[in-house]
Design a protein that fits this description.
Layout: E1 6-10, E2 27-32, E3 35-40, E4 52-58, E5 61-66, E6 77-82, H1 88-99, E7 102-105, H2 106-116, H3 119-129, H4 136-147, H5 150-155, E8 157-160, H6 166-174, E9 181-186, H7 189-197, E10 199-201, E11 208-210, H8 219-224, H9 233-253, E12 258-262, H10 267-287
Parallel strand pairs: 6-8, 6-9, 7-8, 9-12
Antiparallel strand pairs: 1-4, 2-3, 4-5, 10-11
Helix pairs in contact: 1-10, 2-3, 7-9
Length: 304
């Protein structure tokens, strides 16, 4: 087969045209027969839906072809777990601000159903008031639908407070949703109870305050704050029993990607630790992009 510019071979890879000017200080240099070819890294065009290799003849290595193979890393997928009031909401706000992930809070999805007065919401409220887990058939469907939406698929997602049982984790895996990292916030029980009992909701803005740690800015806001029905000491202790009973089973399914973080630290210190973990994950995934260079005779192509 004679060379006439560009050939295609079925394979999961992409290419870069080495005839472009060398405008980047970062170069890929590979030995081709007795010649060398340099490819500007910035000129690579990665695509998540790859279907073929493009073979381009190189002016710097006239008797060879350059094949650059790369696979784009998937958007970041993160699960964060912890007992009620472990600080998940606060950390999720900081994470999404920096990493632009889609924040999906299973608790918020459930409370929206409760507020809307749907049949699923009524059933969910009965379970929540007893400190029990909401049936999987209700919550799994809501979470699956949210994870499947285009913004979650394109930007990546941060799943907050879910899964809460091994059956939920199994259901998610069955749908193809698995995290790159699973973050668990560890907080002593006495601190958790204090955090929950002092929480208050602003029904106008939806913002969560704490009477001790994060009080409202004005008397006007303070006057309209309400306590969520599941934020009493009695109910939080029931929820903690349920959480402790199920968390180890969930962790066993994600043990290879689980990182424990001390959630009793200040929110700034907790975030610093989480940010370090996420940057490491991204760095490892970016480093996994493969660049390969092959001589043309490997594909039986003549340069004559």
């Amino acid at each position: 087969m004679a060379c006439s510019g560009c050939y295609s071979v079925n394979f999961m890879a992409v290419s870069s045209n080495p005839n472009k000017p060398l405008t980047s200080s970062t170069l890929l240099t590979s030995k081709l027969s007795s010649s060398y070819s340099q490819i500007p890294f910035s000129s690579l065009n990665f695509n998540s839906k790859l279907s073929r290799i493009q073979l381009h003849k190189s002016n710097t290595a006239p008797n060879s072809f350059v094949v650059v193979s790369g696979i784009k890393a998937e958007p970041l997928k993160v699960m964060i777990s912890g007992a009620p009031a472990s600080g998940k909401g606060t950390q999720c706000e900081l994470i999404t601000k920096k990493y632009d992930l889609v924040h999906i809070a299973a608790g918020d999805l459930l409370r929206a159903e409760v507020a809307a007065g749907t049949e699923n919401g009524r059933r969910a409220k009965e379970c929540m008031e007893k400190g029990q887990l909401v049936p999987d058939e209700i919550v799994v469907t809501m979470v699956k639908e949210r994870l499947s939406q285009p913004d979650s698929q394109e930007k990546g997602w941060l799943l907050d407070g879910y899964p809460r049982s091994s059956s939920q984790a199994t259901a998610l895996k069955g749908f193809g949703f698995e995290p790159h990292i699973f973050i668990l916030l560890d907080v002593p029980e006495e601190i958790l109870v204090e955090r929950v009992v002092g929480r208050r909701l602003d029904p106008v803005t939806g913002k969560i305050y704490h009477l001790k740690y994060s009080p409202p800015e004005t008397e006007e806001i303070a006057a309209r704050l309400t306590q969520r029905f599941d934020d009493t000491e009695e109910k939080v202790k029931l929820r903690l029993l349920t959480h402790n009973k199920n968390v180890e089973a969930v962790l066993s399914m994600y043990e290879d990607v689980t990182v424990r973080v001390d959630g009793s630290l200040s929110k700034e210190d907790v975030y610093t630790k989480i940010d370090t973990v996420l940057r490491n994950v991204l760095g490892q995934r970016q480093a996994a992009i493969v660049l390969l260079v092959f001589p043309c005779d490997m594909f039986g192509i003549s340069t004559a």
